[in-house]
Design the sequence.
């Protein structure tokens, strides 16, 4: 009976109220990074961050005011009006329709939203677009040189390192970032290099093969 | 028209009913697929035809689409496992700038979709659409809902206790047991010289498709177009037309690329209907994609299983009696049955008794080989325990009792590749880091049917194949192009493959390892007819032969008996004049079959101090009859094995019994394998091309978890009877061994 012991003896008499106010869930999440995983796992409300509930109107809150920013993406400058709380992922995808990066977990766990910021991989779901100003952003769309694929892309195709392909942009960029630093990695180093990415179709063994093959291509001059 | 036709009988069995229909197929003089060894495309390794789109980020998934003026939808869900909505006020949400539509449970059309009576944490209560996703989220959180919380139960064993909260109003939590028996188990156990009895448990796990469920709904003049991340466009069309009371022809469902489904996207989904309702109310398209949390909680799962098993054998290992009592929960959907025979083996006396249990949890849906991994885990574990009790090699005990010759051959093949002869005869010590070997097996049906296709040859020589199937990421499009290229003597680049649209000839859902066996014969039939009809326009006038005497190869059309008489494919197509040639074909018997075993051998490393298990090496032996594309096939086998390792070692839905919701609906606490856990996998094909095409999605997933459990036992003597085999369970089993 342990399961039922906590229940109200007469549930009819004990209504409880769901959250009545807003939660800027995105902002709350970004603020709470680090402890986010733990609290989300035990928070009583599963879809609503009730702790953030406030008696203010939306427009008075910081984070929702529109801001005009410029982003350098794949060598081009884009001017966009964003809500200050917008992530880089949402600006790329929803506003600029650059959709190669996918938001899969929305909390830095899966790597599907990977982009390069100043030459390093970054999870675009956990980066504010505001913080991406004045930086060089490159996405999967910018990797090929016109019709000429990057050696990593070629190797992914040859080794069939993709199935549904939803995780693929992230894996390709993580692999590329690894090979930029180390063009002769061991299998173990490859695994570590893509350990921030998740694939549910199970392409990992072939991603490893592709990474090693691409490394060879790159050593041989692409 | 000189094309000879012949009649063939199609026998279909659905829900126990057999129907026979006769259809005309072209008599090509060829039977089956022919000898694929000499073919260029069919049965050969070819890269995916959509790979470039996928590696460049150009592939557009439902999730990536944006229509002009489109709004974003969100669903407000019950935070309580069982609750009654007593008051709902959306006025604050409605006042928020950017909010364009709100639907509440009492609104027209919302019945059955949005609920005042919630039976699991995550059930749909209200929905909003707004100009941005962020505003939609804000608006959702501004909807005031007052709930009355009611008693609930979220675990199957607790739900069967007396006094447990009842899930469905009209029936008890536990179903009447379904019994399946043969012989007399009392006699059988009396005759047995060795018996083993044990309880096994498997957990609920979820699909974790990387692209969540979702759709974009667009109404125009009373007609609905839906872009959906679905494994079943036809079923989605049917479901939506029924829901809105409009003809099938007024609903069009489109799906191009999709980010996985694994069984959870096989039917019309409530969130598709919610998006369509919002779109109708707002008068503009609405996109509604679920979050990762919603995906875990609401879109389905594999039921858990509690299985009490007793098995009896003669001293020589021959099985005599088997009894299994099992129950499990599919949440509010009940249905948790697993195959109702002694899985895989022949036992003269058996009795299987199964109970489905309702709990206040998200509904189960098909997940890669429904029921089979649960059955395999208990059966293949108990066989291993029996072998230990008999002091025999578990492989020998299996082989002696396995009626399936193919599987026995696959076991022999796999054992050799794996090096089963190097397995320790008795478990290693419960100290240090130990390695061990285990094996497991499974079986799956699959099979094909219910598919039509259309082939179009344009006068300029371009070719299109259209089929209302869907590519869930396995390479269906590529296989279609391979078949057409082979028959037309063209290259993969010459074939335009159009699928994933209900405007094309219908096919079934892509699930149960049936797609390849359904689509391949239909495409083959279609292109064969198209080729003959094309040849018929000029065979006798140009070459003075029958269309059957011509052949298409390497971009040319030849007279078979005199290859010097030829024309290019373009010249041949030009004979059509102004009109393209459009031919419809369908699935025909003789090119596919069903029923495949699967076998796996696994080596693990167990750290007896920490209880951590690592899979080191896997040999997976599978058969698919004729393998259409070995490159893609191997990828699917890898995928099945890896999901199987996840099921065996890492993944489980954890429900808080006091709060009644899933506590790990993310990708961190719900542990999907990452790169560091990937073992070496050897994929072995047991070739049976004479059987025609058979699917491969499910089989490689089934044997993995028990093979791991058996390897853990072999490594260190820890018998873990519950998956996932987490370190705590290994340590507990080791303690038991040391004590016992
Ligand atoms: S979506 Fe950004 S890491 Fe998963
Ligand atoms: S290819 Fe489908 S998730 Fe990786």
Sequence:
């Amino acid at each position: 009976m342990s399961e039922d012991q906590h229940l109200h003896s007469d549930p009819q008499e004990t209504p409880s109220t769901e959250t009545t106010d807003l939660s800027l869930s995105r902002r709350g999440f970004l603020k709470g990074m680090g402890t986010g995983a733990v609290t989300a796992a035990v928070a009583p409300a599963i879809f609503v961050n009730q702790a953030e509930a406030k008696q203010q109107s939306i427009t008075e809150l910081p984070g929702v005011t529109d801001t005009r920013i410029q982003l350098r993406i794949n060598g081009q400058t884009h001017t966009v009006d964003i809500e200050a709380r917008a992530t880089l992922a949402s600006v790329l995808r929803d506003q600029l329709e650059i959709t190669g990066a996918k938001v899969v977990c929305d909390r830095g766990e899966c790597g599907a939203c990977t982009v390069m910021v100043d030459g390093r991989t970054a999870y675009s779901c956990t980066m504010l677009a505001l913080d991406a100003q004045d930086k060089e952003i490159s996405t999967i769309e910018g990797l090929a040189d016109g019709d000429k694929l990057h050696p990593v892309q070629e190797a992914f195709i040859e080794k069939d390192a993709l199935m549904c392909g939803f995780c693929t942009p992230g894996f390709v960029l993580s692999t590329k970032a690894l090979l930029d630093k180390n063009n002769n990695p061991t299998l173990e180093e490859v695994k570590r290099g893509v350990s921030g990415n998740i694939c549910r179709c199970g392409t990992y063994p072939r991603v490893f093969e592709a990474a090693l093959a691409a490394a060879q291509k790159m050593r041989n001059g692409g | 028209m000189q094309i000879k036709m012949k009649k063939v009988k199609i026998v279909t069995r659905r829900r126990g009913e057999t129907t026979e229909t006769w259809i005309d197929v072209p008599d090509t003089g060829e039977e089956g697929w022919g000898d694929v060894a000499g073919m260029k495309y069919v049965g050969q390794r070819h890269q995916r035809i959509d790979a470039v789109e996928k590696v460049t980020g150009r592939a557009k998934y439902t999730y990536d689409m944006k229509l002009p003026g489109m709004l974003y939808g969100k669903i407000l869900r019950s935070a309580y496992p069982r609750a009654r909505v007593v008051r709902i006020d959306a006025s604050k949400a409605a006042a928020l700038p950017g909010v364009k539509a709100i639907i509440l449970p009492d609104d027209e059309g919302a019945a059955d979709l949005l609920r005042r009576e919630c039976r699991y944490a995550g059930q749909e209560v209200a929905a909003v659409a707004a100009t941005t996703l962020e505003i939609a989220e804000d608006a959702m959180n501004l909807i005031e809902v007052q709930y009355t919380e009611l008693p609930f139960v979220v675990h199957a064993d607790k739900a069967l206790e007396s006094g447990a909260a009842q899930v469905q109003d009209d029936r008890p939590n536990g179903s009447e047991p379904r019994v399946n028996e043969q012989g007399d188990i009392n006699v059988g156990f009396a005759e047995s010289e060795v018996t083993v009895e044990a309880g096994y448990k498997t957990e609920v796990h979820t699909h974790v498709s990387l692209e969540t469920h979702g759709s974009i709904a667009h109404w125009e003049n009373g007609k609905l177009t839906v872009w959906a991340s679905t494994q079943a466009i036809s079923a989605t069309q049917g479901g939506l037309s029924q829901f809105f009371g409009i003809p099938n022809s007024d609903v069009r469902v489109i799906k191009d690329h999709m980010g996985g489904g694994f069984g959870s996207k096989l039917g019309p989904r409530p969130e598709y209907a919610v998006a369509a309702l919002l779109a109708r109310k707002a008068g503009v398209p609405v996109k509604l994609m679920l979050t990762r949390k919603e995906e875990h909680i609401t879109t389905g799962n594999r039921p858990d299983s509690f299985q009490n098993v007793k098995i009896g054998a003669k001293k020589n290992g021959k099985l005599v009696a088997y009894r299994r009592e099992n129950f499990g929960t599919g949440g509010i959907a009940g249905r948790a049955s697993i195959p109702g025979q002694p899985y895989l083996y022949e036992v003269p006396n058996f009795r299987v008794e199964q109970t489905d249990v309702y709990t206040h949890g998200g509904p189960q849906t098909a997940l890669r080989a429904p029921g089979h991994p649960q059955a395999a885990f208990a059966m293949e574990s108990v066989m291993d325990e029996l072998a230990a009790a008999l002091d025999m090699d578990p492989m020998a005990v299996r082989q002696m009792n396995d009626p399936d010759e193919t599987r026995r051959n696959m076991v022999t093949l796999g054992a050799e590749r794996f090096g089963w002869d190097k397995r320790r005869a008795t478990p290693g010590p419960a100290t240090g880091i130990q390695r061990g070997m285990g094996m497991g097996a499974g079986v799956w049906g699959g099979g094909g049917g219910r598919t039509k296709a259309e082939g179009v040859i344009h006068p300029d020589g371009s070719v299109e194949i259209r089929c209302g199937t869907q590519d869930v990421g396995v390479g269906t499009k590529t296989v279609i192009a391979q078949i057409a290229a082979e028959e037309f003597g063209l290259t993969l680049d010459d074939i335009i493959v159009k699928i994933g649209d209900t405007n094309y000839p219908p096919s079934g859902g892509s699930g149960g390892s049936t797609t390849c066996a359904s689509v391949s014969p239909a495409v083959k039939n279609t292109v064969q007819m198209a080729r003959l009809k094309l040849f018929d326009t000029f065979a006798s006038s140009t070459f003075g032969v029958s269309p059957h005497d011509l052949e298409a190869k390497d971009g040319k059309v030849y007279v078979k008996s005199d290859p010097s008489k030829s024309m290019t494919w373009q010249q041949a197509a030009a004979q059509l004049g102004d009109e393209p040639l459009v031919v419809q074909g369908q699935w025909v018997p003789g090119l596919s079959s069903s029923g495949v075993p699967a076998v796996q051998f696994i080596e693990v490393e167990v750290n007896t101090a920490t209880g951590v298990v690592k899979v080191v090496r896997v040999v997976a032996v599978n058969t698919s009859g004729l393998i259409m594309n070995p490159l893609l096939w191997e990828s699917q086998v890898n995928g099945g094995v890896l999901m199987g390792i996840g099921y065996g070692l890492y993944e489980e839905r954890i429900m808080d019994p006091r709060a009644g919701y899933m506590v790990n609906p993310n990708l961190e606490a719900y542990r999907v394998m990452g790169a560091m856990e990937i073992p070496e996998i050897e994929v072995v094909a047991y070739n049976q091309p004479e059987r025609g095409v058979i699917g491969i999605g499910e089989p490689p997933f089934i044997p993995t978890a028990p093979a791991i459990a058996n390897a853990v036992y072999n490594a260190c003597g820890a018998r873990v009877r519950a998956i996932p085999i987490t370190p705590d369970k290994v340590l507990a089993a080791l303690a038991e061994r040391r004590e016992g």
